[in-house]
Write a structure and sequence with these properties.
- The chain is an alpha+beta fold.
- It has two domains: 74 residues, Orthogonal Bundle (Arc Repressor Mutant, subunit A), CATH 1.10.10; 81 residues, ADP-ribosylation fold (Alpha-Beta Barrel), CATH 3.20.170.30.
- Helices cover 33% and strands 18% of the residues.
- The strands form three sheets. The chain has a three-stranded antiparallel β-sheet. A three-stranded antiparallel β-sheet has the order 4-6-9. Strands 5-8-7 form a three-stranded antiparallel β-sheet, with no helix packed on it.
- Helix 1 crosses helix 3.
- It is elongated.
- 26% of the residues are buried.
């Protein structure tokens, strides 16, 4: 299996487990899970057959651990635009978290803070390197520091997904540190 095929499978999983399950005729449960067999049959019937071993390889080898397999089921770990309850407990964040973006987004972020946009949560990284990679997907990255400790003390809730992405409902501008 070549790397291009693995990337295509990963993108297919993300699209249908995070955003458009109905497009291939599957239904996620309230926690975002679907039976692997159901998913594989649906993918094949919609012209995208996936070998079970390749599915395992994509889930295990995904650099961001975007997906989880358990008890014959699969789901995305976060990033849904659908109403999904990932059942993540509230967690105390580290003092600082980071958010990768691009310069063209800074005026809106300065005015409104970080908003979930078409997702349910703002995604925050535990380190600058990860935030840099995230921001680089859309252009030259700009990394913002989030004073997560102060946010937590002010009553804002944080959750952390299975792959280490920190989730918040939003980040007000007062808790953001912009690069010079």
């Amino acid at each position: 299996m070549d790397d291009r095929r693995l990337v295509r499978i990963s993108k297919y999983l993300a699209k249908h487990l995070r955003h458009e399950p109905e497009r291939i005729g599957i239904e996620l449960d309230e926690r975002g899970w679907v039976e692997v067999d159901v998913f594989l049959r649906a993918a094949a019937s919609h012209g995208f057959p996936i070998d079970p071993a390749d599915l395992q390889r994509v889930v295990a080898g995904n650099d961001k651990q975007r997906f989880a397999l358990a008890n014959g089921r699969i789901r995305a770990n976060q990033g849904h635009s659908l109403e999904i309850d990932l059942d993540l407990p509230v967690a105390e964040p580290p003092a600082y978290l980071y958010h990768g973006t691009v310069a063209r987004s800074l005026p809106a972020i300065r005015a409104e803070g970080l908003r979930p946009m078409n997702r349910h949560h703002v995604h925050l990284s535990p380190d600058r390197e990860t935030a840099t990679r995230v921001g680089a997907r859309r252009g030259k990255p700009v990394v913002l520091s989030v004073d997560a400790g102060a946010m937590h003390e002010a009553g804002h809730e944080f959750r952390v997904s299975a792959n280490g992405v920190w989730l918040a409902d939003g980040v007000p501008p007062a808790f953001l540190r912009f690069p010079d």
